Please model this.
Amino acid sequence: MGRETVVALVGKPSSGKSTTLNSLTSAQAKVGAFPFTTIEPNKASGFLEVECACSRFGKSESCKPNYGYCRGGKRGVPIMLLDVAGLVPNAHLGRGLGNKFLSDLTEADCLIHIVDVSGTTDAEGKATRGYDPLNDIEWLQDEIFHWILGNLMEKWGSVVRRHTSTKSSTLETLRQQLGGYNANKELIARALDLVNPLPPLQEWDNAKIEEVVRAFMDVKFPTVLSLNKMDHPDSDKNVSKIILKHPKLRCVLTSSITEVFLRKLASQNYIKYDLGTEFIDTIDDLGPESGLKPLDDKIRNRIENIRDLVLYRFGSTGLVQLLQEAANLLDLVPVYPVRNINTFTGGSGEYVFRDCVLIKKGTPVISVARKIMGEVTIASIEGVGGTRVGEEDTVDVGKNDILSFKIVPGGGAH
Model:
């Protein structure tokens, strides 16, 4: 099995990281068992919402996933979240849990950086007013940069000597130096492609080494910013400032505390809440026949405030969109392996699209088969309508994303 995609949540204390993690991992309904065999203490299973294949074929009624959930054609696909602790300034010097925080990051395929845009917490997460959250964005990037650069520079002299004496390629030498960050050859090659011009490694000066490290960070740690506490009065001006200073960064406005509250009310049957939207309904809206519980004035007023200050103003709490943005950054596509390509069912029973895996767009279908089934001998691969799919054909949104793999008898996984 290929390794799972890992999205790391990072942020200083009191930025809303734990609240964000809680909202992304609570699916507001009983969900199937988790697909990840062992979930370590700082890992959790989040749910990426995608348009389920069942809605394409009018089969939402009979869609019952093995993992995650499907509600009215909206599928919650499990995705691994890593809760990275110990984030304080000068982590790269070992301050706080610095070294642990940075080595935990190596597992991540992308980062969600939760930034308190209200400016009510300082760099250490202590209460204040008027703090500039721009500092947090730049400081996180600097921490990672100085950590990687420091590790590289520590032995740069011997790296260059070995590089010239063994006549290695730049890619091979950097693979040896950067492979420890869970980076394969392809990823390092993508980073080197961003550096222009790229002189021979033995001619690199400090500025060129720093440029290479920045390029490596771009491909190894692509980042989505969660601009959290968006409904605070001071947030607007801070959001504008961040977007002006960093126009290329992917930003999502969020209110994680609102999302947690709405999901809690929904689980207690006070409201019907359509995740990722502005739509919440109460017994006042739908009447007693809805089966919803009656509201007291305190809850009713809080819901009205949430509608006015968050939902109607921003269109949603932003939490569903946050994971979707991370998936877009990683080019992930939901792929549905089925036993029966005509009915879309599994081995037995009438339920459709029982399984869904997240695969990088452009991956050959034979690699999808390996990820799902291990080292088996594939006799043939079928797509929708029973059409033959070539092993080197690639997956994309709505293309080769429903597949049935036929195994050679006796060619099972080793």
In short: The chain has a mean pLDDT of 90. The first strand starts at residue 6 and ends at 10. Residues 146-216 form a domain with the Helicase, Ruva Protein; domain 3 fold (CATH 1.10.8.470). The radius of gyration is 24 Å.
